[in-house]
Design a protein that fits this description.
The chain has one domain. Helices cover about 20% and strands about 40% of the residues.
Length: about 90
């Protein structure tokens, strides 16, 4: 399932080897979804690309994560909206 979170990013919920995952990427104008990758420099100087994901070892951990997120949404007041990217 794809969720457009803002103008630049979207999330996809999936499973990998039976484990629940949240994948970070972009939903392009043609409707296709593209995974984001993080480039990591190795000790030998080469670089390797890793997909930007959160993988939960157990479904219960994911459930607790979403429950806590919902609690925090209720606790943290909304801020004024801006078109600026927060980083």
């Amino acid at each position: 399932m794809d969720y457009k979170t803002n103008k630049y990013q979207s999330l996809k919920l999936d499973r990998y080897n039976g484990k629940f995952q949240i994948l970070v990427g972009s939903l392009w104008s043609d409707g296709s979804w593209h995974q984001d990758f993080k480039q990591v420099k190795q000790k030998d100087g080469s670089t390797k690309n890793y997909p930007v994901t959160i993988t939960f070892d157990e479904d219960q951990i994911a459930v607790e994560f979403f429950k806590r997120g919902l609690e925090e949404l209720k606790e943290i007041p909304s801020q004024s909206q801006t078109d600026d990217i927060p980083f």
